[in-house]
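Sat 14:20. Reprocessing the chain from the morning session after the first attempt stalled halfway. Input below, unchanged.
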Amino acid sequence: MSTSLPPVPGAPSWPHCAHGADPVADPVGCRGIQVAGHTACLAHLAATDRDAYLNGLTPGTDIDHRGTPFTEDLLNRLLTALHDPTTGEPHIGTAWFDWATFTGDAWFDGATFTGTAWFDGATFTGDAWFGGATTFTGDARFGGATFTGDAWFDGATFTGAAWFDRATFTGAAQFGEARFETASRLGPLVCGAKVALDGAVFGQPVTVEMAAREVSCARTRWISTATLHLRYAEVDLRDAILEYPVVVAARPDPFSFHRSGNPLSEAELSGREPGVRLTSVGGVDAAHLALHTIDLSMCRFAGAVHLDQLRVDGWCTFATTPTGRGRRFPWRWSRRNTLAEEHHWRVRTARRPARAHGWTAPPSDAPELRPAAVAALYRQIRKSLEDGKNEPDAADFYYGECEMRRHDTFRSRGERMLLTAYWALSGYGLRATRALAWLGAAMTATIAVMVLWGLPVDDPKPTTTGRQAAVGQQVTLTTDTPDPVNPTGPLPDRVTGERFEKALRVVINSVVFRSSGQDLTTTGTYAEMTSRLAEPVLLGLVVLAVRSRVKR
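Finished this time. Tokens:
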């Protein structure tokens, strides 16, 4: 029997009913295939002929109702005629429902298709139920099918191929607990609501292509490799089981039909951004998970294991800190990549609402984590980014890890004080501007001390003295340098160009850990010693911070 799709909107390739044909308005009429031995489709048969046809069906019979318009009552009568008395459910051999129209709800719940089930181009105006114990032992073909209501395939078993290419779902597409035993491809399909693959099992390498508002893969089991090409979707991977590598990637351009190359219509999703957002990987072993060009700003990583082996490729984005500046410190909210868990922690622990401004509030089901737990998440994902040669973003996660350690009250006070000093001076060695500002402030302070108190009034001049006891005897000479004289008088009078130049020379030499050779007062000597210890450290922090941003 031909499997080619009929031309639309012309006459179909099969002998059709033509009921209601009109030479002007509709020269084709009803496109339903004629029932064998009759000139009308099942929907337009005479009542006695329809009853005779239905009474002649037995479980497992092949049926062909391509293009037939089914009401809810007619479909129920057809499936009742195919009931297997041993199971109490419909038993169908090969079924041809290509381009059929199902008005109202279509209940195939519990049916068994022992041959190929053809629903290519079919239209479901109500909910379509293929859940329960529905089993497709042959191929299940829904290519180009249109589901106006929700479509339920919960618990269905697909032992052959599952063809949903070009299928359109206006409502939800439910595949919960479904089994795809040999399917190598699912989609491309378009769903205006949610595609639920919760608890589904994929037994073979598979490629999933979907444009949908939501894709839920909670507890989905991938027994082999899988690649998910998605558009528009918010993806939930909670408790998914990944036995082999699974790639979740955002598709930059619309899906196309492989035969014609024409792009699939995404009218159900118009007005939305086509990017993909991952919401959770909690409970996932991330060692086999790879993400490519995914928005991770809302993603919750808590509960996942082996995050240090997570692959983050392409242009994956994370949440960022609020863009506003703090009142106490202008650098408090310096921009950096963060995890959603830090946002949730800061909102929960904010003592005043103003401190939570700009941070994302946690969902009601988000666990309450201690800073040590958030620090561990930062540490593992930082390792993942470093392994991927993404040093700049890894540096942001090191910053986040240190922030959580600094706020962890279970750590020793000494460690927290050290981290606080490290944060204030250079943003944990990652904020060059902050370290440079402290270096400039230290140099300015040292210059001021030198000009006002550190430089003597005049540079001491060596004095040589000696005497000769008698003619012809050796003369003894002694050279001595007087102690520097502290400056006196009003402080403004001590600020001169000459003293500033000397002070600047002393400070510059101190930064590079060299002695200037300048005579100094006692105050100046101690100031120089302090400068030679502190300022090279600050310069090193500047260099470290710059390197962390340009390292590849």
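The chain is about 25% helix and 20% strand.
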